[in-house]
Design brief:
The complex is a heterotrimer of chains A (about 220), B (about 220) and C (about 200). Chain A contains 7 helices and no strands. Chain A is mostly helical. The longest helix of chain A is centred in the C-terminal third of the chain and has 34 residues. The radius of gyration of chain A is 19 Å and the shape is globular. The radius of gyration of chain B is 18 Å and the shape is globular. Chain B has one domain. Chain B is mainly α and about 220 residues long. Chain C has about 200 residues and is α/β, with parallel strands linked by helices. In chain C, α3 packs parallel to α5 and α4 crosses α5. The chains are: A mainly alpha (about 220), B mainly alpha (about 220), C alpha/beta (about 200).
C-alpha cells in the first residue's frame, strides 16, 4: 500500500472520508424537500452530484485520450483507464439511484429522460471500452484504440443528449427537478454543490489510486 | 488516390460479391422474422416500420463493415497502404465511401421486399426517403469505419463491432427513425430538418474525427 | 540513403523486445540481421517501414524522422516481408498496379517487370491461388517497380525454387550496383556472410 505512504495522499483520503461522512449524515437527517416523495426525495442529493462527476470523469477519459494520442506517454494511458474505471462505477451508481428516485417522483422506474438515457448509452459504450481493453489486441495497440474510443464516446454526448431530448418532447418538463434548484429553497442548491465537491474529491482520490496501481503493476 | 482505394474494394467485391450478397440475404432474413413476429398485430406494424427498417440497416451494416475490414486483415493486405506514402486519413475516407456504396446497394435490394412483406404503403416522397437513407447510412458508416478500425486487431472483432457501434450510433437510430416515421405519415421535409441536422452533424463530426485519428489506428 | 535508429524501445504485452536499441546504416550499405525466433527481427523491419509504431526512440530515414504523420519517409522504403501485404482477391497485376499507384509510380512497367520475374503468364490469376514462391516473386516485382532507396528484406529466400533463387540473386546484384541500402533478415547465416557487408545478431 505504498500509495498511502505519501503524506499528501493520506491527507487527500482523510478529506474525502470526512466530507463524505458529513455529506451522508446531512442527506440522511435532512427533511426531504418534497414530502410527497418521502425519504426518496433525498436520493436526489446523491444522484445529481454523482451524475455530474460521472460525466466529468468521462470527460477526463477524453482529455487523457487526446494527450495520449499526441505525446504517447504511457502515463496518460493509465490515467485514461483509471478515469474510465471510476467513471463507470459512478455511472453505474447514477443508473441505480436514478430509477430509485424516478419511481416516487415520476411514477415509473425508467423514464427515457435525456440525461438518464445519455448516461445509459455512455455506460454501454464504456462496457465495450473495457471489452476492447481486454480483447483488442496487444496492450500497446489497445492503448491507442482505447484513447480513440474514449474521445469518440464523449463526442457522442451532445448528439445523444439532443436526439433523446427531442425524441420524447413530453419528457422535457421537470417540475420535480426544478424544485431542488429554486431560489425559494437555496439550501438544497447549496447541498447539491457541497455533495458535488465531496464527490469530486472522492473520485479524484480513486482515480489517483488506480493510476498508481496500474503504473506499479507494469513497471515492476 | 481515394478513387484507386475505392476501386480496389469495388474490384474485389465485384469478383466475390460476398459482402453485398450476405448483407442482402441477412437483411431479407431479419425482415422475414419481423413479418412473422408481428403477425399478431398487422395494423401496428406500420407504426413500427420505420424503427424496424433502421434496425435492419444497422444489423446489416455491422455485417458489411466486418467483411469490408476483414478484406484488409486477410494476409495483412493492409500493409500495402500502411507502409505506402499515403495519408491514412485518405484511406479512412475511401473506406467510408466503399462501405457507403455497399450498404446503400444492399439497402436498395432489400427495401422492396421489406415494403412488400410488411404491407407498407408507399405513398410518400421518394426523394426525401433517399435523402434520409443517404444521410442515415452516411452517419452509420462514418462512425462504423472508425469502430471497425479500432477493433481490427481484436480477437472478438465480430462481437466488438456491434457492441461498440449500437450505443455510439444511437443518435442515428433515433434521428433516422424519427425522420422515416414522419415521412411515412406524409409530413413534408421542412418539419424534420432538426433530425436531418442531427444526422448531418453526426456524419461530419465522426467523419472529421476518423480522418484525423486513422493515422494512429492502423499502425500495429 | 542512410538509416539511423536511436534508442529504440518496443514492447509486446509489456515484455520489452527492444530496449534502447541503436544502429546506424550508411547509404549503400548491406546489413544482415539474424537471431533466434522472437528476437524481434521482423518487428524491427516493420517499425522501420512504418507498419508498426515505436514506443520510444526515433528512426531516421535519410535524416528525416519516421513518423505516422510524415508521408515522405515511407516513399523511400519498401518492406518485402514474407508473402504478406497483398490482396488475395486481386490478381497479381492488379495488386502491383495498386501498390505502384500508392507510391505514385507509373503502372506502364508492371507487365514488363512481371515478365522479368517469370509471372508473365500468371498476371491475371488471383493472388489467393499463388504458391509461396510465386508470391515471393510478386513481392520482388513490386520492389523492382517501386525502386526504393532502402530495401528491407524479411527471409527473402523462403519458398523460392532454384530458378527463383537465381532471379533473386540477379535482382539483388542490381540493387548492389545501384548502391541501394539493404537490410536483410535471414536465418541463413552463411548466405548473409556472403552477400552483406556486415551482420548483426539480435538476442
Amino acid at each position: 500500500m505504498s500509495f498511502f505512504k505519501h503524506r499528501n495522499n493520506l491527507i487527500h483520503a482523510g478529506i474525502a472520508l470526512t466530507l463524505s461522512v458529513i455529506n451522508i449524515y446531512i442527506i440522511f437527517t435532512l427533511d426531504p424537500p418534497n414530502l410527497a416523495q418521502g425519504v426518496f426525495g433525498n436520493i436526489f442529493f446523491i444522484h445529481v452530484p454523482i451524475a455530474w462527476s460521472a460525466f466529468l470523469l468521462y470527460f477526463g477519459v477524453m482529455v487523457c485520450g487526446i494527450f495520449y494520442l499526441t505525446n504517447k506517454s504511457i502515463k496518460w494511458d493509465y490515467r485514461g483507464l483509471a478515469f474510465a474505471e471510476v467513471g463507470t462505477i459512478f455511472m453505474f451508481l447514477v443508473l441505480t439511484t436514478g430509477p430509485i428516485w424516478a419511481k416516487p417522483a415520476w411514477g415509473h422506474f425508467w423514464p427515457w429522460e435525456p440525461r438518464l438515457t445519455t448516461s445509459l448509452i455512455l455506460f454501454l459504450i464504456f462496457l465495450g471500452y473495457f471489452m476492447l481493453r481486454e480483447f483488442g489486441g496487444n496492450p500497446e495497440q489497445v492503448s491507442r484504440y482505447a484513447a480513440v474510443l474514449g474521445i469518440l464516446a464523449f463526442l457522442d454526448v451532445p448528439l445523444i443528449f439532443f436526439s433523446v431530448k427531442f425524441w420524447l418532447p413530453e419528457m422535457q418538463s421537470h417540475p420535480q427537478v426544478g424544485q431542488y434548484f429554486s431560489s425559494a429553497n437555496p439550501m438544497s442548491t447549496y447541498l447539491i454543490i457541497f455533495s458535488f465537491i465531496s464527490m469530486i474529491i472522492i473520485s479524484s482520490l480513486m482515480v489517483r489510486f488506480r493510476t498508481n496501481i496500474l503504473s506499479m503493476n507494469h513497471t515492476s | 488516390m481515394i478513387f484507386h482505394l475505392v476501386l480496389k474494394d469495388l474490384k474485389i467485391e465485384w469478383r466475390s460479391k460476398e459482402i453485398i450478397t450476405s448483407m442482402f440475404i441477412f437483411g431479407l432474413s431479419i425482415t422475414l422474422i419481423f413479418a412473422l413476429a408481428f403477425q399478431v398485430a398487422p395494423n401496428l406494424i406500420r407504426t413500427f416500420a420505420p424503427g424496424l427498417l433502421w434496425v435492419v440497416i444497422l444489423f446489416t451494416s455491422v455485417l458489411g463493415l466486418n467483411r469490408l475490414f476483414s478484406l484488409e486483415k486477410e494476409d495483412q493486405a493492409l500493409w500495402s497502404w500502411v507502409a505506402a506514402p499515403v495519408n491514412r486519413g485518405t484511406v479512412y475516407i475511401a473506406k467510408v465511401i466503399s462501405a457507403f456504396i455497399f450498404i446503400i446497394m444492399s439497402e436498395l435490394l432489400f427495401i422492396i421486399p421489406f415494403f412488400i412483406f410488411l404491407n407498407l404503403p408507399s405513398n410518400f416522397s421518394f426523394i426525401s426517403f433517399a435523402l434520409i437513407l443517404f444521410l442515415g447510412t452516411g452517419a452509420i458508416v462514418s462512425v462504423g469505419c472508425l469502430i471497425s478500425g479500432i477493433t481490427l486487431q481484436a480477437r472478438l472483432r465480430d462481437v466488438l463491432i456491434p457492441i461498440l457501434l449500437f450505443p455510439s450510433a444511437s443518435p442515428v437510430a433515433i434521428a433516422a427513425t424519427k425522420c422515416t416515421g414522419l415521412l411515412f405519415n406524409q409530413i413534408p421535409l421542412v418539419n424534420y430538418l432538426f433530425w436531418l441536422l442531427i444526422l448531418g452533424s453526426f456524419f461530419v463530426i465522426f467523419g472529421l474525427f476518423g480522418y484525423l485519428v486513422f493515422n494512429q489506428i492502423v499502425e500495429e | 540513403m542512410n538509416l539511423d535508429i536511436n534508442n529504440l524501445s518496443k514492447s509486446f504485452y509489456h515484455v520489452p523486445v527492444f530496449q534502447s536499441f541503436s544502429i546506424s546504416i550508411k547509404s549503400g550499405e548491406r546489413v544482415g540481421l539474424f537471431g533466434p525466433n522472437g528476437s524481434g527481427k521482423t518487428t524491427l523491419l516493420k517499425m522501420i517501414s512504418g507498419i508498426m509504431s515505436v514506443d520510444k526512440g526515433e528512426i531516421l530515414i535519410g535524416n528525416i524522422l519516421q513518423d505516422s504523420e510524415n508521408i515522405k519517409t515511407r516513399k523511400s522504403i519498401y518492406y518485402l516481408g514474407h508473402s504478406l501485404g497483398l490482396y488475395p482477391g486481386l490478381t497479381g497485376n492488379e495488386n502491383i498496379s495498386f501498390i505502384s499507384k500508392l507510391y505514385g509510380k507509373s503502372e506502364l512497367l508492371v507487365l514488363d517487370v512481371l515478365k522479368k520475374v517469370g509471372l508473365g503468364k500468371l498476371e491475371n490469376k488471383l493472388v489467393k491461388f499463388y504458391s509461396q514462391g510465386m508470391l515471393q516473386r510478386l513481392k520482388l516485382a513490386t520492389a523492382i517497380i517501386l525502386n526504393p532507396e532502402i530495401i528491407l528484406l524479411d527471409e527473402p529466400l523462403n519458398g523460392l525454387d532454384n530458378e527463383g533463387l537465381d532471379l533473386f540473386k540477379k535482382v539483388y546484384t542490381e540493387w548492389e550496383e545501384n548502391s541501394k541500402t539493404i537490410f536483410v533478415v535471414s536465418h541463413d547465416q552463411e548466405w548473409l556472410k556472403n552477400f552483406t557487408s556486415r551482420t548483426i545478431e539480435l538476442t
